[in-house]
Amino acid sequence: MEGLKNPNGRFDDRQDLLSRIEKYERKVIPSYEGKVHELTHKLRNRPSICTSVSCIDVSKRIGDFEKDSKMNPELDKIRSELKRAEEVIREKDNEIEAKNKELREMTNMIQKMAATFNTEMSKQEILIRELNDEVVDLRGQIRVAIRVRDYEKDGSNFEITSDNEVKFQQNGQSNVFEFENVFKPTTNQPQVFNEIKELIMCALHGKNVSLIAFGPTSSGKTYTMRGDEENEGVIPRAINFMLEHSRHDLATIGWQYSFVASFIEVYNDEVFDLLDEKKKIKITGEAVTSNKIPIKGMRDVNHLLQLADAQRSVASTACNLHSSRSHAIFQIYIDGVNKSGETIKCSLKLVDLAGSERAKESGAQGEQFKELTKINQSLSTLKKCIRAQKNKDTHVPYRDSKLTILLRDSLGAGSSKTMFIAHVNPNDVCETDRTLKFTSDLRSTRIGKATVQTGQ
Fold it and tell me: pLDDT grade, residue 185 (50/70/90)?
């Protein structure tokens, strides 16, 4: 059929075919049908041949008849092509409908599988929460790890005997101290975080969590918590872990989270906001009003940490050329809501305590001596609070120090999962002895089981 097909003998597409068929139905076919009708009419009304009809008229009529007769095969051909085209269109429509039906069935199957998957994921997430809590609780509500700075091993009275024990000799007596983890001098930053991330996970499950680094000056506390440009510490790793886990694993089961952070320091027993030009903060009762910055990505975290680093109080002493002279408390406030209606509202505290020093060794004088005194006093109060909890005393002296007021929820007055990371430099025998003895008190202290915080 001329004009109905492209040069290759095929229709371009269904719309092209329909357009061409419409053209022939509108113009060509009516023309042929009109001529057929006219010829039929002439034949029916044809007069009998008589002497009044000339031979010329008869010849003309016969010629017209023969001409119109030749058109009939072409018209039949067009009709046949149209019929075949209609059959092709019906076949294509049937194929399309079959494909659409198959697609609908596959879509329904995928939706059912997704619903089943989400249900199973929710069950698994609840189970993981319970197992994670059991693991943490079995290790004691106050967990204690120790990180050992590199030291001269020859002739040392300090020895790492396993992944969970160290042995220390003092005054001819050898004592073994147990820990959740012993981080050796060769342990790197990722390995340290890998051992504590289950505790960070508890915060995403709605529990208040505190991670506290303590130990003498120059033992590596700030390095563990903050890290450096090449080796990120616990603070940036913890935030990145929560952002990634909340946006992927927990998001698939209907959770949405928001995070804001504050960063304060306790310097000379006064509280200052490191995110608000180091403004002094008043503590009203147990409430602290500080500047809070939303965290949506690691760029926000890096900006926040740089801002705090520029404000934190540091000084050079005989024990440490870059000694932190304040206790730094980085706190992340977590709000979570699930599509089921479940909510959580809790916080994660990451604390870098100032290092204890002895005045004689540090060479502190004047303002530095005052700083040293305040640091040691606040750390002494912290130890008193731990021992009071251990002994189940009716009174715990939280209010004797700004530091312990701020940490009271982490030390037994509230609901929290708490972990201390003790830091030691075995070359300093006296401070190592004090630190190890304090860890024994910590591991013997029960502060109660943490509960989910819903904010209601």
Answer: very high
